[in-house]
Prior knowledge:
This protein is of the alpha+beta class and 1018 residues long. The protein contains 20 helices and 17 strands. Among the domains are: 1-156 and 951-1018, P-loop containing nucleotide triphosphate hydrolases (Rossmann fold, 3-Layer(aba) Sandwich), CATH 3.40.50; 291-347 and 704-724 and 734-744; 429-503 and 527-589. The strands form 4 sheets. It has a 6-stranded antiparallel β-sheet, covered by helices on one side. Strands 10-14-15-3-16-17 form a 6-stranded mixed β-sheet, sandwiched between helices. It is flat and about 185 Å long. This is Nuclease SbcCD subunit C. InterPro entries: P-loop_NTPase. It comes from Shewanella salipaludis. Residues 241-292, 350-452, 533-627, 787-838 form a coiled coil.
Amino acid sequence: MRPLSLSMSAFGPFAGTQVTDFSALGSNPLFLINGPTGAGKTSLLDAICFALYGKTTGDEREGSQMRCDLADDALLTEVSFSFALGTSSYRIRRVPEQARLKKSGDGYTVHKPEAQLYKIDSEGTETLLVASKVSEATAEIEQLTGLDADQFRQVMVLPQGKFRELLMADSKDREKIFSQLFQTQIYRRIEDKLKFQAAEIRTQVREQRSRRDGILQSAELTSAEELLIQLATVESELLSAQGAKEQATEAQQAVAKAVDAAQHLLLEFEQLAKLEQEAQSLAAQQTHITAKSQQLALATQAQRLKPLWELFLTRETEFRAAADKLLQCRDSLAKARVQKQEADTRAQHLPALEQELLQHEQQKQSLNALVSELAEFTKLKQGLVSAQGELDQAKAQGMAGKAELEKLQLQRGEHETLLPQLQQQSDTRLHLQQALSQQQQLLARYQQWQQVSAKVEQTQAQLTQAGAEGQTLAAQHRQAQTGYKALQLAWHQGQAAILARELRAAEPCPVCGSELHPHPATWHEALPTEEALQAAEQAQSHAQEALAKARADYKGLQKQLETLQQQADELAQSLGEVQHLGLAELSHEAERLQQAVHAAEQASRSLQQLQNQIKVLQQQETGLSESLERDRDRYQQLHSRVDTLLGQLAQKEKTVPLEFRTREALEVAIAENRQGLEALKQQIAQTRAGQQQASQHFVATEAATGAAEQARDAADEQQTQAQQTLVARLTEAGFTDQQALHSAMLDDAGMQALAGEIDAYQQQSALNGAQMAQLTARLDERVMPDVAQLELRLEQSRQHLAQMEQAWQALHTRSSLLKQTQTQLHIADGKVKILEDQYGVIGTLADVANGNTGNKISLQRFVLSVLLDDVLLEASHRLQLMSKGRYRLLRKEDRAKGNKASGLELEVEDAYTSKVRPVATLSGGESFMAALSMALGLSEVVQAYAGGIKLDTLFIDEGFGSLDQDSLDLAIRTLMDLQSSGRMIGVISHVSEMKEQIATRIDIHKTSLGSEISLVLP
């Protein structure tokens, strides 16, 4: 990742908006971030880290705590950071949670955090990737960079006071960082995949074994041997049950046939009884059937007279209709006579209506003539109103313009009065700025002198304490050495006594060979063991190492004290008499000069603004004077126009009546006239048409009444003739009157039903007789069977058969279950064998890959250890240069205690002592050099591996102050070498030598109104 630009608003010590263009520093720059304490050097790195991840580099402050107290309430705290990843460019904007003034009302409201991420194409066009969600923006940044916030702080930023974290990280933490940097997650996925597969196989084995036990339990078995025994027993019993079932089936079938024959014979006896009952019922119906036959004969006679009956009814209906029609016509004739008389009366008023119509026509002509006159009158009146309005407006505009001109002249005079004072105050700005710069430099040197003096006192105290600790360690070393020598002497003497106890007379001594032993060695105390001797030797060695380290630390503190004292003396000499003044007095003077500079700058800006305002006022006066002259000419023209319109309007009022001087009144009169004309015309036409229609209707109604009388007479004659013919035929057919005929009549359906009923009776009687004769002959000499006894025997045989089938079915089911269980057991045993063979391979691979064997090193950690060796090779090369060949970084290969992960811890080899020791034993300056070497080596190796994350930028926050001059020169030379290989290196430091050797700088100026940023280029 390579920074392109950074914009901060109201962030940290920056009250306004500060923009840093990193691309202006050049390609692969080595630059210094310079500024006094508290100016905001670290805040620059905080802003980058916050923009990317929403966290600061030290992770000690939340984003909501980064708002500048000096910022304007209207300015939003936000950070915008543009950066390049390979050939792609991006911009992220992040706003922390903060309190904002309400848009309406008093008080504050909480502005929620937000973030936007854009991708920038080659033409500078931005494409939105994340709209506002903070978590989505952070996740996208982690995806793009391959690092989270903690990893970013460890590999791309060495934060102030936290550079040791990169060195001191254990295997677990270093594994997280390196796996992201080198993209080795595939090995972790292999580990997880193997672990998952092994666990899955173990689960399947347990499931198969559990399933096998379940198969036996479901068959109520305990073992496969029991299964074989039960299967043989059940097969034998099943064969016997099959024979018993077949015998029971044959017996049940024989009884069933006997029951069927008995039931058939019983059915025939019951059928004969039913036929005898039916014969008795038919004999009882004979009288009813005879009456039905007589009714059918009368209905047949009536059917022949039906046409004459229907003709008589038709003639009777026609006569009644003709009589009703005659009554209606006579009623209509009376009404038509009345309507004709009324229409004749209305027609007598037609002459008066026609005279009124003529008057309305004359009024219409008069009103139409007034339309054009009213239009001219209205136009003149509107023109007068408009002209009077323009005249009043022109008068008011002239008065307002005159007042505005006087106001501008007064305002210009007031501004010109202020010019001399602002000019004098502005002239002092340059002198005050120079004095302020000198005072700020003096204050910075004074603060640095105070800090160095405090370090001198602190180092002196540390030196005194180190001397006391050295004396204590020397005494402890002497004591351990004396104890070890005494124990060693006792051990040797004890060995002689042990040897003497083994001597025998006349046998040679294994030491001197003499067979005489006049004075054998003796020992009356407890002999020391070899373990005690080794422990004493180790205690002496540890005491010696501690003493050597204490002496080296003491010499280092002495040298550091000399360097600090020299710096303090140089700073005191540069301060001169100023060192006797207090910090408060110097700060007060700097603040006073700052305020004076601010006042002078404000006066200069005010002077320029005032001069511009005077020029604008003069231009406005000229324009306003010209405008007033034009307004006076226009006022005279409008006044003449109003007089002319007043005369024309007076002439036109004579031709337009007062009541018609509005368009609405005239239109109402015209509309009323039009409605009156239409109403009169309609009334005259309706009166004439009504008279004609009433006369025509009366004539037509009178003719219809005569025709109705003739039709009534003809219908009466036809009705009488039809009645006479019907009465003559009734007598011939034997009917007494019309009522008797009507009662005998049946419709076709009724006659058919009656005839059908008689035929059905006759057929049923014949059939009943034939069936009775047939059954009587067939059942002759037969006896009614005892069906109940036979059915009881049948039920008993069925129950016996069911018992035999149930016994056979139970044995058959058990046999099938045992055979199925035998098959399932064979399949389950085969699956368990296959899974156990698979686990023998997969399980072993999973244990090895996940570090569960040997040195507890997983597959990914093994790969990373190889990569770490490459990193340490590069880092050691740089560390040896900076430490003058003393130190070299190594990977600890010993297994960690307990279950702790191992394989990625670091150690340091000390060429002075030829020993390897933990990196935690390095001093502050040594740790900084080691961490810097580690970061640079990591950057080199990651860049070298294809597909690795781009670590082409490194920020270092402080740490150089802990180096001596030679180490500092070597560190700077190392950074310059790294710059030439294509890296951007940013350094934050108070060390003056850094400023002298690094020409490209980002200077941060601390002011009372907030810090400001400027670029210094060579």
